């Protein structure tokens, strides 16, 4: 963070709670993330995203995020479209900066869509839901040109300003 700030790089970072100790002690992960957020606040509210991981860790992420969101405005999370309940999380976190992704982990059919078609359809649904209702910035992470074009058209039809969102892509993908 120091180097980013010193070189004038406007950045945001993602961290995984498992990297901060959540698999052993959720309170430790919370405290570690809080230290990161305090440091990020000293640099013009550098944004920190809590990355989502496998579904089994989702409730931990929600617990930690719910504790931090009242104290920090520079915290957000990632919503995975392949989860059946992703629309509920998009609704719950309208005030937070979110990154919307399709989802990468193999999950059971009791909690996640299994077909690409179903995931894509739900992804478009939560993107539209978010863009219509969000009170904060939205990052849409995709390389899918069909979805990108759909989002652009949806924004145009609904008079949604371009500065409310951005497309993000993995470098080298």
Structure description:
Pfam families: Pro_dh. This is Proline dehydrogenase (Proline oxidase). This protein is an alpha/beta fold and 173 residues long. Helices cover 40% and strands 16% of the residues. The chain has a single domain (2-168), classed as TIM Barrel (Alpha-Beta Barrel). Helix 6 links the parallel strand 5 and strand 6 (165-168). The chain is globular, with a radius of gyration of 16 Å. The two termini are 25 Å apart. The model has no long low-confidence stretch (mean pLDDT 94).
Keywords summarizing the entry:
173 residues, single chain, Proline dehydrogenase (Proline oxidase), FAD-linked_oxidoreductase-like, Proline_DH_dom, TIM Barrel, 6-stranded parallel β-sheet, Proline_oxidase, proline dehydrogenase activity, alpha/beta
Shape: globular
Unreliable residue runs? none
What is the count of distinct domains?
1
Global Rg: 16 Å
Q: What is the third-level CATH name, the topology?
A: TIM Barrel
What's the helix and strand layout?
Elements: H1 2-6, E1 12-16, H2 26-41, E2 47-51, H3 58-68, E3 75-80, H4 86-92, E4 98-101, H5 116-133, E5 138-141, H6 145-157, E6 165-168
Parallel strand pairs: 1-2, 2-3, 3-4, 4-5, 5-6
Helix pairs in contact: 4-5, 5-6
Write a concise synopsis of the structure shown:
By secondary structure, this protein is α/β, with parallel strands linked by helices. The chain has helices at 2-6, 26-41, 58-68, 86-92, 116-133, 145-157; strands spanning 12-16, 47-51, 75-80, 98-101, 138-141, 165-168. Pfam families: Pro_dh.
């Amino acid at each position: 963070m120091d180097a980013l700030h010193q070189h004038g790089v406007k950045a945001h970072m993602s961290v995984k709670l498992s990297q901060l100790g959540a698999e052993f002690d959720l309170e430790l992960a919370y405290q570690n993330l809080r230290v990161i957020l305090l440091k990020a606040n000293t640099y013009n509210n550098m944004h920190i995203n809590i990355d989502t991981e496998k579904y089994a860790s989702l409730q931990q992420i929600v617990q930690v995020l719910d504790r931090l969101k009242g104290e920090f405005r520079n915290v957000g999370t990632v919503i995975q479209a392949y989860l059946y309940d992703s629309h509920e999380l998009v609704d719950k976190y309208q005030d937070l900066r979110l990154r919307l992704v399709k989802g990468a982990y193999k999950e059971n059919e009791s909690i996640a869509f299994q077909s690409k078609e179903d995931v894509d359809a739900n992804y478009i649904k939560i993107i539209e839901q978010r863009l219509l209702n969000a009170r904060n910035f939205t990052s849409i992470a995709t390389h899918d040109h069909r979805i990108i074009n759909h989002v652009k058209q949806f924004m145009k039809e609904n008079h949604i300003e371009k500065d409310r969102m951005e497309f993000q892509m993995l470098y080298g993908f």
